[in-house]
Specification:
This protein has 421 residues and is α/β, with parallel strands linked by helices. The protein is built from 13 helices and five strands.
């Protein structure tokens, strides 16, 4: 008859293989694919230069073609709009002058948003040219009919052709903050966030689950030093070999290290509090939620509202934006991201420093946590040298070890001597 326990374990394994694992895979795919499939502008901040009728027409045209896509900021001149782009207040701006449209963009902020602003500028220019071409021939045709009658209507067709050619809007593109020449599409930058997140979790698991006894302050110090060293090597690869982070070398290294420390500290803190299950919780939070919700491949404003909010409160999203600010925008717009990362670091390192976990051994008695700073441990029980009255001699056929025989020989000799007397 089959053991019921074995049957229960077999059923549990079957449920894990057939139900749980496919569910986890499907959730992981959804976490990455769903935000990517919903990418579109949502209140994307852009600038409009001027308050003329042409500027108002641009605002109305963008609002009509993409409702809710843009958040418009008005600026008095082009210099103000450029300054706003460099300060990360807007992603780009439209400068409207008679017969021309200047599109200001920043590919360093997001190559996909820069392409969106470029496309919107082309559409605006085409619409403006079409409107101007319709208005000019209509006025010319009315004037011709009033003066010369219907015999000269054919001349108005030539005037219409000339008006259409003269109504063309010249579009000029200016990349105010360009990406690195070695990484013009931002491929290296976009690809670096996920490896940094995974490596940060690995650092925490190695330092926390190694089983070595050490004071907790030393474990905190090791986390900080390991993330600083790993951030430095990551920066050397990204900039020294690939040229993707061209400006503010020290600040950029600090941004990479702070991002890694926020992830590592959170992972180490969860492992300290709940054990090995904390490693899985960190992987779910940082890899399957934080990374796809970060908006690093597009922009936070290109994701759904809830996804944008969650992503910017997690280390991968805050770290990616901080890295853009330090590498390309002289640190502008980085205050909020630094605050988020510092908060995760403080919470994680506090859990490592103060968290207590007392796992039980096989007999149910608690053992001391390996991180006790005093280094004191539980003493192992010492075997008694006295023989209890209930001791029984070993049955025949079982050989005793020489050490036991030598230890017991004085007692046996004394008992034999007493029996002889």
């Amino acid at each position: 008859m089959k053991n019921p326990l074995v049957r229960l374990l077999s059923l549990r394994r079957a449920v894990m293989v057939i139900v749980a694992l496919p569910l986890v895979v499907s959730l992981a795919v959804m976490a990455y694919a769903w935000p990517a499939s919903r990418i579109e502008p949502r209140d994307l901040p852009v600038g409009i230069v001027g308050t003329s009728a042409a500027s108002q027409n641009v605002v109305e045209g963008l609002a009509r073609s993409k409702p809710g896509a843009f958040d418009f900021h008005l600026y008095a001149d082009e210099a103000s709009a450029r300054s706003a782009i460099k300060s990360r207040e807007v992603y780009g701006a439209f400068v409207i002058t008679p017969g021309s449209l200047t599109v200001l963009e920043a590919s360093a902020a997001s190559t996909s948003v820069a392409q969106l602003i470029h496309t919107s500028g082309q559409q605006l220019a085409a619409q403006a040219a079409k409107s101007a071409a319709k208005e000019a021939p209509a006025a010319d045709e009315t004037s011709v009919r009033s003066k010369a009658g219907r015999s000269k209507v054919g001349r108005s067709k030539a005037d219409r052709t000339a008006a259409e050619s003269s109504a063309k809007i010249v579009v000029t593109e200016v990349d105010v903050v360009p990406s690195s020449a070695d990484d013009p599409r931002g491929v290296v930058f976009n690809s670096a966030v996920l490896p940094l997140t995974i490596c940060s979790i690995l650092i925490a698991s190695f330092l926390t689950m190694s089983g070595l006894r050490m004071p907790r302050w030393r474990r905190v110090l090791e986390l900080v030093l390991a993330c600083a060293a790993a951030g430095f090597t990551a920066y050397l690869v990204a900039q020294g070999m690939l040229g993707a982070l061209p400006h503010e070398q020290v600040a950029t290294w600090a941004a990479v290290s702070l991002t890694m420390l926020a992830v590592s500290a959170t992972s180490a803190g969860l492992i300290t509090l709940v054990g090995p299950a904390g490693l899985g919780l960190t992987a779910v939070l940082m890899v399957f939620v934080g990374n796809p919700f970060s908006g690093v491949t597009s922009a936070p404003e290109m994701l759904p509202k809830a996804v944008n909010t969650i992503g910017q409160w997690l280390p991968p999203g805050a770290g990616a934006n901080l890295l853009r600010s330090t590498a390309y925008f002289d640190g502008n717009g980085s205050e909020g991201h630094i605050t988020v990362l510092a908060l995760w670091c403080v919470l994680g390192l506090t859990a490592v420093a103060l968290g207590r976990r007392t796992p039980a051994v096989a007999d149910g008695s608690p053992v001391q946590h390996p991180d006790r700073a005093d280094g004191a441990g539980t003493e192992a029980p010492v075997a008694s040298d006295t023989t209890t009255p209930d001791s029984r001699p070993a049955p025949e056929g079982h050989s005793e070890s020489p050490a036991l025989m030598l230890e017991a020989s004085p007692a046996r000799s004394h008992a034999r001597h007493a029996a002889d007397h």
